[in-house]
Specification:
single chain, alpha+beta, Alpha-Beta Plaits, 3-stranded antiparallel beta sheet, binds flavin-adenine dinucleotide, flavoprotein
Length: 315
């Protein structure tokens, strides 16, 4: 059930699965939904298998929906001083344009990208946050609407500066500020979290996590980036240079429980897109209730009574 930068446009992979053939842990071959568009006949088992990480059965065939080829697109990067204004910018652009992506990153993320890649600053003005959005257009009317939205952002003080690409080459250049963050922070052995809340909650959620981190480990630096348009944030805590990797990791493991308490408080997800696997098994309870986990275990028992399908994962 993967989904990344373009979830705001296309949704998660689940939305595109029209049918599955699955062999369960009991050896039964199930033919689920068979590519039907309409099939209102009770529980949709197809969706139980999407994102189940191989714990219920083995998918042997998938029928996927297709869509139109993407049209031309243009990238805009805006300097947004207030986190809460990122959402106002989203509303403004979404009203008049088809958005393919709506990403954000913090100023220190941009600085690290610039220092490791030697890319020049995207604009003259610094800001605590930046929004990168990509919109689709088939005609010049959409481009004019984008220019108007851009101007409105500046007029309403939602953004203090910005740049709109004028060519495919410039689109690619602007994407680099977002796409090269992971590479830029790798030397600091970041402790990563892939968390999500409802988009409207993002500003309060981000502030709460900054606060909890500063309370326990004020020396830790956080680099934020992610798919703010769908509420998915990538939280990266950087190892201070004078900390050993093992000490840093155990400190972060301890801190993580406080961070995940915040995720729980916001009714968020401990794994927006990366799944649970082994690493996040003990975190499941921050997003799923005790009774839900008990039901998941019961379902596992139904489809895989001998525990042979990806044993030990997820639950
Ligand atoms: C650097 C990096 C960036 C990432 N960024 C994103 C992102 O932006 N968005 C996102 O959604 N994810 C992201 N991911 C996670 C990524 O989606 C998953 O790692 C990837 O989808 C797994 O695909 P794979 O082909 O490697 O599958 P595998 O690792 O082989 O399998 C994934 C899971 O599916 C199960 N499985 C495999 N085949 C079958 C089958 N036939 N039937 C049933 N179960 C099966 C496996 O048991 C396993 O649990 C990222 C991962 C990395 C390493």
């Amino acid at each position: 059930n993967a989904g990344g930068i373009r979830v705001i446009r296309y949704g998660m992979t689940r939305n595109w699965v029209a049918g599955l053939k699955v062999v369960t842990g009991t050896g039964d071959l199930l033919d689920l939904n068979g590519g039907l568009v309409k099939n209102n006949t009770g529980y949709d088992l197809r969706h139980l298998f999407v994102g189940s990480e191989g714990t219920l059965g083995f998918i042997v065939e998938a029928t996927m929906k297709l869509t139109d080829k993407p049209m031309d697109s243009t990238v805009i990067v805006l300097a947004v001083p207030e986190m809460s204004d990122c959402l106002a910018v989203l509303q403004l652009f979404r009203r008049d344009l088809v958005l393919n992506a709506f990403e954000f990153f913090s100023h220190n993320a941009l600085q690290k990208v610039m220092s490791t890649t030697h890319l020049a600053a995207p604009m003259a003005t610094d800001s605590p946050y930046y929004v990168l959005l990509e919109f689709e257009h088939s005609d010049t009317a959409a481009l004019s609407r984008a220019e108007t939205a851009f101007a409105n952002c500046l007029e309403q003080d939602l953004a203090v500066d910005g740049v709109m690409a004028t060519s495919g080459k410039q689109n690619k250049q602007l994407w680099q500020y977002r796409e090269r963050i992971t590479e830029a922070i790798t030397p600091s052995t970041p402790y990563k979290n892939d968390i999500a809340v409802r988009p409207s909650q993002v500003p309060r959620f981000l502030a709460a996590i900054d606060q909890v981190t500063a309370r326990y480990f004020p020396e830790f630096e956080i680099v934020w980036f992610g798919h703010i348009g769908d509420g998915n944030l990538h939280l990266n805590i950087l190892r201070p240079e004078d900390w050993q990797v093992t000490d840093f990791k155990s400190a972060c493991d301890e801190l993580n429980h406080h961070i995940l308490d915040v995720v729980h408080e916001f009714r968020g997800s401990v794994s927006a897109e990366h799944g649970i696997g082994l690493l996040k098994k003990s975190y499941l309870r921050y997003t799923r209730s005790e009774s839900e986990i008990a039901l998941l275990r019961n379902l596992k028992q139904v489809f895989d009574p001998n525990g042979i399908m990806n044993p030990g994962k997820m639950l």
